[in-house]
Amino acid sequence: MSFALADNRQNGRDDLDARIARAKANVVRPVRGSVRAENRGWSIAIEFVGMVLVSAAIGYGIDRYAGLGTAPFAMIAMLVLGFSGAVYRAAQDSASFDADPGNDKKD
Fold first, then answer.
1. Is residue 36 within 8 Å of 77, Cβ to Cβ?
2. What is the DSSP track for 9-78?
3. When comparing pLDDT for 25 and 30, which is higher?
4. 46: buried, middle or exposed (CB in 10 Å: 19+, 13-18, 0-12)?
5. Mind listing the pLDDT tens digit for each residue in 37-73?
6. Which residue has the higher pLDDT, 30 or 94?
7. Contact, 59 vs 76, CB < 8 A?
8. Among candidates 54, 61, 62, 60, which has minimal Cα distance to 85?
9. Using CA atoms, how far apart are residues 85 and 35, in angstroms rounded to an integer?
């Protein structure tokens, strides 16, 4: 019993190159602006989460190690400050991104 394996074909290197070229031509590449918009969105989201987490860690550190007896109020205050700062920064970045005419969809 004989099986036809891909290695048994003797089509040559030129056929492989032609098939690779056809496959590359059929690949739909994303529009440059959409990739940039997606990267910008991820950047804003990661910065938002990072600001909140870092501010919470600072508040926890103040409560835990400063010895001021403020637990849990410093962490809550820092969370509120971090969240408000993150919202402000995200709105600022989004506004500057919306002002760029290169981000508009093309028909």
1. no
2. ----HHHHHHHHHHHHHHPPPPPHHHHHHHHHHHHHHHHHHHHHHHHHHHHHHHHHHS-SS-TTHHHHHH
3. 25
4. exposed
5. 788 889 999 999 999 999 999 999 999 998 888 788 9
6. 94
7. yes
8. 54
9. 27
pTM for the model stands at: 0.61
Q: What's the chain's length in residues?
A: 107
Buried b or exposed e, range 2-41, using 16+ CB within 10 angstroms: eeeeeeeeeeeeeeeeeeeeeeeeeeeeeeeeeeebeebe
Hunting for tokens 């028909």 — which residue is that? 107
Query: Are residues 59 and 85 in contact, defined by beta-carbon separation less than 8 angstroms?
Result: no
Do residues 55 and 89 lie in contact, with contact meaning Cβ atoms separated by under 8 Å? no
Which amino acid appears at position 53 of this protein?
Answer: L
DSSP state of 3: -
